[in-house]
Amino acid sequence: MLVLVAPGQGAQTPGFLTPWLELPGAADRIAAWSDAIGLDLAHYGTQADADAIRDTAVAQPLLVAAGLLSASALGDFTPGAVAGHSVGEITAAAFAGVLDDAAALGFVRTRGLGMAEAAAVTETGMAALLGGEPETVLPHLERLGLTPANVNGAGQIVAAGTAEQLAALAENKPEGVRRVVPLKVAGAFHTHHMAPAVAELGKAAEDLAVSEPVVPYISNADGRVVSTGAEIIARLVNQVSNPVRWDLCMETALGLGATALIEVCPGGTLVGLAKRAMPGVRTLALKTPDDLEAARELIAETQSPAADAAGA
């Protein structure tokens, strides 16, 4: 069984969209989406520097657009389950048929603008802690006033809070933590600092055309499979200020019988976590169109009668 996943903010790099725009029809799709949401996705995905695409209002729509574009290049197939990390959950909602592409991009545009505005109130950020055990790391973060915004599994927890709190963390790492790595994000996402964006996103959600998911959708909130479109949208709204439990998402995928995982563009982060936390699962990251052939082969293998019999 193949799981299709979408990365979150911080996965973007300058120029990462360039080779994808060479695919037939890709530039036209990106241009249409850009016009619809009032953001030049092609410019930001091909010419803008790291600082420009670090802007939350830019990064989030750019990531969703890249995920949708790269997934469509895989061809017509039905994954066994879908999931996304943070803003990648909106991409995953489109994969599941809960939102169409236009609605997903409009929704993420509102999310990005709202979170950017909330982040501007106080200087905040996020940092990944590599190594350490949760029973040691989590109390340490609490003492510093930081929130474990992402519990990613595979020995990685992401802390979020004010610049002062993150500086204190860098000076005083929890026992067992090898490194504290600042992330390329512009705020303390998935914390109380994002509360104003939750209200704004909730209003936008009222106007969405929502369908029921056509494949299992694994939620960041608790790793559960969510079976109704309405609940998925409600979770997308609340997720902005609640922690991401990617560790539980991976556990659920394994419980569903996952044997393969493909991460859409700009892939790499979630595949890295899966390699450590999902032993035996074949993984592939869509970084450039050069990865498409191998991805299609993996899809074909997981959907063959022999693969079905092996998973029975």
What report would you give on this structure?
It contains 14 helices and 10 strands. With 312 residues, it is an alpha/beta fold. Mean pLDDT is 94; it is low at 308-312. Strand 7 (217-218) and strand 8 form a beta hairpin. The strands form 3 sheets. It has a 4-stranded parallel sheet, sandwiched between helices. It is globular, with a radius of gyration of 18 Å. It has helices spanning 26-37, 41-46, 50-54, 56-72, 88-95, 101-119, 134-144, 163-171, 195-205, 229-239, 246-255, 269-277, 292-302, 305-311, and strands at 2-6, 81-84, 124-131, 147-153, 156-162, 177-182, 217-218, 225-226, 260-263, 282-285. It starts with a strand and ends with a helix. Helix content is 47%, strand content 16%. The longest helix is centred in the middle third of the chain and has 19 residues, at 101-119. The protein folds into 2 domains: 2-120 and 191-311, Malonyl-Coenzyme A Acyl Carrier Protein, domain 2 (3-Layer(aba) Sandwich); 124-182, Malonyl-CoA ACP transacylase, ACP-binding (Alpha-Beta Plaits, 2-Layer Sandwich).
Instruction: Tell me, rounded to a whole number, the average pLDDT.
Output: 94
Total beta strands: 10
Strand content: 15-25%
CATH superfamily of the largest domain: Malonyl-Coenzyme A Acyl Carrier Protein, domain 2
Rounded radius of gyration (Å):
18 Å
CATH class value of the largest domain: Alpha Beta
Estimate the global geometry from the Cα principal axes: globular
Task: List low-pLDDT spans.
Answer: 308-312
Number of domains: 2
Largest sheet: 4 strands, parallel
CATH topology of the largest domain: the name is Malonyl-Coenzyme A Acyl Carrier Protein, domain 2
Please identify, by name, the CATH architecture of the largest domain: 3-Layer(aba) Sandwich
Give the strand order of the largest sheet, numbering strands 1, 2, ... along the chain. 2-1-9-10
What's the N-to-C terminus distance? 10 Å
SSE run: EHHHHEHHEHEEHEHEEHHEHEHH
The helix content is 40-55%
